[in-house]
Amino acid sequence: MPGQTPTQILLALAGEVALLLWSVQFVTAGVSAALGSRLRSLLADGLNSRWRAFAAGVIVTAGLQSSTATAMMIASFAEVGLIALVPALAMMLGANVGTTLIVQFVAFDTSTAIPLLLLGGYVGLRRFSGVTPRECCRAVFGLGLMLLALRLMQATMQPVEHSQTLKVVLGALSQDPLVALLLAALLSWAAHSSVAAILVVMSLAGAGVIGLETVLAMVLGCNLGTAMNPLIQSLKGNPSSRRVPVGNVANRLIGCLLGLAMLPLLVPQLERLAISPLQVAAFAHLIFNLIMALVFLAPLPAIAGLLMRGFPDASPDSDPARSRYLDRSALRTPAIALSNATREVLRMADVVEEMLAASQDAFASNDTGKILQISRTDDVLDSLYNQIQLYVGAIRHDALSEAEEDRLNALLSLAINLEHVGDIIEKNLMQMAGKRIRDQRRLPADDLERISGMHGRLRDHLRLAVNVFISQDEAMAKRLMHEKEMFRDLERDAVERHLAQMRTGRAEALAVSALQLDITRDLKRIDGHIAATVHGLLERRGLLQSSRLLRAAE
Asked: How far apart are CA 34 and CA 37, in angstroms?
């Protein structure tokens, strides 16, 4: 823009880059909210072969326009054992291709599309009330903003195309492709998005301020930088969690080295084709990822073997979230597999008992660390539950006897209810414990004693439920159902105390009473889940009808 100082130009570019980054996130958030569950299901369906996994990675990332988001979903699936290493690596190759597709659209004239996308998205946001159509319109509006940001950046760069200062700075990039590659990698890493980084490169190329060699080097760098984010995130986990990110970074590094070596051959050929530098950037981004996918898809099993040797599984004893007894080779003998699953479910019961003890302490102290610890323990519980589900699902049910089938149903009932108990502790009770600490509210000694007593009863009932599961003892099951009535009485007492506090009109006492009532109700819900673990046994013995213990059985 004529008359602008370098500082003004830099500020304009910084604002336009911010708009570009924000618009990419806008598109990703809109698609995730509208189609996120379907995209995650599509990823889960692509687990059978590397080719299906590759296709699933392409489709999901083409929708999300974020290979980082796809990588996080793949990592979450791999963490709980939902996906093997070879399909996970294939999905990452597909994700790298999928994130290039929207760039192809941007490479052509979008002057007409920009106002149409902005207008259509805005009207849809104002008109629709449903979540899916509104979020789709949000993504459309974000796409319009992304194209607008790119157009603004190109307009800002055009007047300075002949600037001597700019030529000196960018001349350094042209003289050393490695510097250009590293600079683009840094930009892509900082933006957490290869799409945003590639669009910046395209804006520079469209303004004519960088040559073809620099364009190609920066495209390589954009692909390398975005692979670093999942790797850095995986450093906090176990060595095995780094397999997919390391495999992806290795793929990018090899591609970058080969690409740098071939630049002297490619640049003269591209100059003869008379393709605009902007389109070269877009096409190079797509072709690079397609070639790397085609080259690496076939040898993925060998690559996976190297990664597994380089990053072995952590010892189950050092990682409480990993199963200890779910031996895949035992699946050939369903009775042994069922015994293994039983031992793992008993580990879940130990974790829940630990959470109950920690929950009791959380209400007696002002240490938020205890609440965070319970949240981490619930993650362990969820991981064990997911691994048990996958293992039990792989058992040949047609090879089980009727007694073993009943045992399997009891095992699943116990696992499901234990997982629900963990959720209530982490999502409900700990939310109340955290709010109590934030509000600097202390519970009276008699309330703490009641809460402690209820937690103690729950741990007793949990041990009783585990004993029923192991022994199938009818008398203990009936005892557990009868003791469930105790929590109804406790809830009734809490309601009466709350009503009495309401009559006093004291705000602080009323708030404490309401908290005590909410805690009691959630603890009663937990006891209901514990008691539900024996329903199957009592129903088979004819002692339970319509969820109530028959009076005749008493």
From this structure: 8
Tokens representing residue 31 in the block = 């698609």
Grouping H, G, I as helix, E, B as strand and the rest as coil, residue 545 is strand
Q: With 0.85 as the threshold, say if the pTM is over it.
A: no
Please name every residue paired with 549 in a beta bridge, in sequence order, or none if there are none: 544
Longest C-alpha distance within the chain, in Å? Answer: 97
Q: How far is residue 292's CA from residue 270's CA, in Å, rounded to a whole number?
A: 20
Q: Which residue has the tokens 């469930």?
A: 484
Q: How many CB atoms lie within 10 A of CB 211?
A: 18
User: How far, in Å, are 419, 425, 489 from residue 455 at the CA level?
Assistant: 17, 11, 15
CB 185 within 8 A of CB 224: yes
Query: What backbone torsions phi and psi does residue 315 show, to the nearest 5 degrees?
Result: -60, 135
Measured distance CA(356)–CA(432) in Å, rounded: 15
Per-residue tens of pLDDT for the chain, all 554 residues: 455 666 776 787 778 778 867 776 777 677 666 655 555 555 555 555 778 888 888 877 776 556 666 676 676 566 555 567 888 888 889 888 888 877 776 656 667 778 888 899 889 888 887 777 888 888 788 878 877 876 776 677 665 555 555 555 555 656 788 888 998 888 788 766 677 778 778 877 776 777 788 889 999 998 998 888 788 877 766 777 788 889 999 999 999 999 999 988 888 888 787 777 778 888 888 999 999 999 999 899 999 889 888 887 666 556 777 888 888 888 888 888 899 999 999 999 999 999 999 999 888 888 888 888 898 899 889 989 988 988 888 888 778 888 888 889 899 999 999 999 999 999 899 988 888 888 887 888 888 888 899 999 999 999 999 999 999 888 898 888 888 878 888 888 888 887 877 777 777 777 878 888 889 899 999 999 999 999 888 888 777 754 455 443 44
CA distances for 476 relative to 463, 465, 466, 481, angstroms = 11, 8, 10, 9
Identify the helix (H) or strand (E) that includes residue 544. strand 544-545
Helix (H) or strand (E) holding 75: helix 67-79
